[in-house]
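Please predict the structure of the following assembly.
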Amino acid sequence: MAELVAVIASTHHPFYYRASTSVGEDRPPFADEWVSKIETFRETLTRARPDVLVMVGSDHFHQLWLDNMPQFLVGKAPVYDANWYNEEREFGLPKMRLAGQEDLSAYILREGLDAGFDLAFSNELRIDHSITCPIITLRPEADLPIVPIYTNIFAPPLPQPKRFVQLGRTVRDLIESWPSDQRVAVIGTGHLSLELGGPRQFGPHGPDPEFDRKAVEWIGSGDIEGCLAEVTLDSLHRPGNATHGFMDFMLMMGVAGEGKKADHVDSLDLFHTMEAYFTWYPKEVGSL
Amino acid sequence: MSKYLVNKFLYTVDRDPDLVERYRENPRETVQWWETHEAGRLLNCIDAEATTWLALDDAEREALASHDHVTLFEMGAHPFLTLTLFIAMFERDHGPMEYQTAYARAMEHITLPYPDIST
């Protein structure tokens, strides 16, 4: 069977690419610390020596639109083109091209459907920065095949938080039952407190530092029950109007498992959001 | 009222570089043209299969035609779509982050709960 070698949850900050590659007067004062934290984070994936990356993210109204909106969608294609004109325009993100792992996509779709998740699929998916940002930060060579999984954290009505956790648990079960000798890492990205397009956007720090503190504690300690007890679709409006992206972190907590303490926890306060990075190793680090 | 159609305007303009410039320079003309020729376009379908019933109401049309991002927010337009498009149109006229912070300040009077963005 395939081996789950790393579970990684991260924020996906679209400005990292520009901040980390800019020089001279254009380089923001926080860039060096940010790059240092990302390089340490990257090493947590490298040491797990994955063959395949399952990438959990959320399309930001790029390919998926209100005329036909899936709640959970799995890409199944040999290749994924990546990044969109408006991401190049606003964030300076480069166009990318990633190989797909169709066998694992097919397995997750078939077995996921049979496990109670009516997953949508796409055979021609152009992926966006929710998936390319962690490629840039964690695997800039972009040399591993991927299985993209998109969640709807964006266009209500949204699935309940517990469904994200359940999907995470199911994804883990499916990877561990996949008849393959591949080493698989799951990488999912979301947000802590975040406001976009509202009065609390782009403040001196994230819109709700108290929520961020609690969120890092829930994730880092694997406190799924505590998190589910406090987080609802309604409650996520309070920390910031884009905070429903936190549910992708909850999905990753489901992959990691109840009570599983993260092996790597780091964060960085930026001017309008808190960055946060987590890695779990399902097996002892020494056996990697 | 059609939050969906307001969002469709923001979505289809934002993804087209020519339309972003046209909407920046001639907002009223762009909204009028779009509602006449593009509003009913069912994505992925031929023109003959256009949607027959979609229309903006007067307040929505005016908010779009006047680049009024505050009113669009208050109407429940998707804030990510509005922000992304407006940054594309107006960030260039300001210093770093000036536009984004002014955009937030213009909405200081809005408190929780925010308008419902469900469509």
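The interface with chain A takes residues 4, 7-8, 11, 14-15, 17, 42-43, 69, 73, 78-84, 87-88, 97, 100-101, 103-105, 107-110, 112-114, 117-119 of chain B (CB under 8 Å). Chain B has seven helices and no strands.
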